[in-house]
């Protein structure tokens, strides 16, 4: 069996000394101002923008307006329910935590935000990149949250940062096909032989695809070299979320032997994978604030 994974990892909630900083992508989207609309009148995207704008404004009441009181938290270092998240707002204000959303995807009741955080010592480093997944509940409020975080890094060998690159959602009619391709790809990586993995990669990746993993350059050969060097291993794929040309895979496995969560975002163009971003985080085992696990989709 050949089991693999894609990135470098760190544990959110720890302090990372001397983390290098890289410039933001020009494609970064500003978080929208806080809205006075009621949650039921907002789109799913607007509800997430409202929550993140509330973080930027350190405004717990604006956040409370879009949160279900029973909000289920899968970041294991944050207390459960809306009250647990709102309890952090004094620290958010004190430290000046800010967030910018780089990419936003909607798939049914799930919204994925690819975020860049500054003044982010509360999250573990001066600058942090995350994937945040939110579920909108039947009452129209934000009911559940999953994430993975890692410190920002310098550009990789091809000069690409963790957040640079395309952010335009297109080809929405291809959503189901692209999600099926990502499911097939990861099933093969987890269960298949080396030859089967090579075949599926050749079939679905464009040879010159753009890579945003910190330790790998562009192209297929560089990725396989990074797999061997970094000892990335996938054990199970938990969820595939997609909109049009973007598909996010959420998996667990190990990185250099450490149990980890893997968020891999893939961009398609004319049916081929042309770009990849990721965040890998060690699964916390100490000082846990809730028992919800990082999965449970």
Total domains: 2
By DSSP (H or I, 4+ residues per run), the number of helices equals 7
Low-confidence stretches: 1-26
Please tell me the CATH architecture of the largest domain by its name: Roll
- Mean pLDDT value: 90
> What is the β-strand count?
11
- Give the helices and strands as they follow along the chain: EHHEHHEEEEHHEHEEEE
CATH topology of the largest domain: Nuclear Transport Factor 2, Chain: A
Under CATH at level 1, the class of the largest domain stands as Alpha Beta
Which structural class should the secondary elements be placed in? Answer: alpha/beta
Alpha-carbon distance between the termini?
Answer: 26 Å
Radius of gyration over all CA atoms, rounded:
18 Å
Strand coverage percent? 25-35%
Shape type: globular
**Percentage of residues in helical conformation:** 10-25%
Strand count, sense and barrel status of the largest sheet are:
6 strands, mixed
TL;DR?
By secondary structure, this protein is of the alpha/beta class.
What is the strand and helix layout of this fold?
Layout: E1 9-10, H1 44-57, H2 60-64, E2 67-73, H3 81-86, H4 89-95, E3 98-107, E4 110-118, E5 127-136, E6 142-151, H5 175-191, H6 194-204, E7 205-211, H7 220-230, E8 232-243, E9 246-255, E10 258-269, E11 272-282
Parallel strand pairs: 1-11, 2-6, 7-11
Antiparallel strand pairs: 3-4, 4-5, 5-6, 8-9, 9-10, 10-11
Helix pairs in contact: 5-6
